Amino acid sequence: MLLSGLGLLCSMTLHIASLTGHAIQLQNLLTEDMQFRAMTSITAGIFVVWLPAALIAQRINKGNRLKFSWKDVLAGCPQWMSYAVYGLFAYAFINFFLSISTREMDSQQGLRTFSGHWMLFYGMALCIFFSSWRRPSLLRTRHCLAGHEVAHNDQFCSLCGLPAVQSGQDEN
């Protein structure tokens, strides 16, 4: 969770610098080798945080790709955090299309394009980790009295109508 938060902070800083024209000043402070290492690290960091985040999200959704629900994955996040990550999702796509719509692509424009996606992946990973940390019951499978799997938000089984088993481990 810490790495995804740091990645989000770094990518937001670089994104704001590229939007305000300060990326050139950052480039002047770092050697070309340092710039390459920083960009490689922040890009590789996405894979370091995204792989476990995707596995956690899949576990919360019981591995069902056809009925994947971000609402279920983010159930442990405060409402403002869910709205912020949905806004970040929309912003990343808008930013991408605005970035590629210009005829000239300079280093600031490239940084703007990449950092917008970095923010999305680090932000989503942070929210997934936070959600599962705040509500560990999301990672557990719930059952009804007949033994059928029941979704986290359901009180009754969709197959037989029996109530979901409530244990001391289930939290809201």
Structure characterization notes:
Strand 1 (142-143) and strand 2 form a beta hairpin. The longest helix is centred in the first third of the chain and has 29 residues, at 32-60. The protein has 6 helices and 2 strands, in the order H-H-H-H-H-H-E-E. Helix content is 63%, strand content 2%.
- Low-confidence stretches at least 5 residues in length (pLDDT < 50)? 168-172
pLDDT averaged residue by residue: 87
H/E element sequence: HHHHHHEE
Number of domains: 2
User: In terms of structural class, how would the helical and strand content be classed?
Assistant: mainly alpha
Could you give the count of β-strands? 2
Keywords:
172 residues; mainly alpha; two-stranded antiparallel sheet; 6 helices; disordered C terminus
Record the SSE blueprint.
Layout lengths: L1 H19 L2 H7 L2 H29 L9 H4 L5 H22 L6 H28 L7 E2 L5 E2 L22
Antiparallel strand pairs: 1-2
Task: Give a summary of the structure in a few sentences.
The protein is mainly alpha-helical. The protein contains six helices and two strands; from the N terminus they run H-H-H-H-H-H-E-E. Strand 1 and strand 2 (149-150) form a beta hairpin.
